[in-house]
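INFO  loader      accepted 1 record
INFO  loader      residues=258
INFO  predictor   begin
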Amino acid sequence: MTNDIHSIHHYKALHQVLRGMSSSANMADSLGVSRERLQAYEDFIKSHITDLLTKHYTILWDLLSPERWQQLSQQYFVEHPADHYELNQAARHFSEFLRKRLDAGEPTILPIYIELAEFEWQEFVAYSTAIELPQTEELAQSILNPTLSILNCDYPIATFVRDWRQAKAHCRQPPKLPDKESQIVFVWRNPNTLIQDYAYADEGLLFAFKMVHDGISYDQACKISGLPLTRVRKLIQRAAAKGIVLLPKPRTTKGKEK
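INFO  predictor   done
INFO  writer      dumping tokens
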């Protein structure tokens, strides 16, 4: 029992240090360790969290000054200490963290930063999710990709991210932050590459999404939209080529498609 009490005391003490509630210098004596040793441990953990945020929110890291990014990382670490066995999950509250600062009137936090953070986190979710994508042979009908998430943005996030990444890839000047312009963004794991993908949900993709989501047949879609069957099929095939829609594998009998 005594050992358990000491262990609890040590965990609470470390928790206070890592959250900035007590300095490592003050707590070292209580724990019976050297100040240098405890400071090294504190620096090691905080460095991991800072690196983690930089990994998941690359665009935001690039947009903000190094000093401001360091400040935000440290503040985030204090308010949201790691609470999950999977270290990446420690970064999941960052958009919420930024929103609170925006609501509090911090001038360096812009509304688009929250949407960029939400987008970059959803990319990680799509990539890392445990959801298994069904094989086409298993499908009885067309379905939406089960990893698909939908972001209703006040800014053209998909367009900005595409332009920003292309500029970075070709060592060009990155684009300026865009003005407000509503945009629906799809984020999903591509069944062909098994990595995350995204797209601006234009009218064609939204048409295919609604058709599959609502279980609308090709004939019904033609009647509702007034589009010819060939056009409807092309819209579905386009969404399927991107991996947003999963189509059942055509059944064949004696070499002929049924």
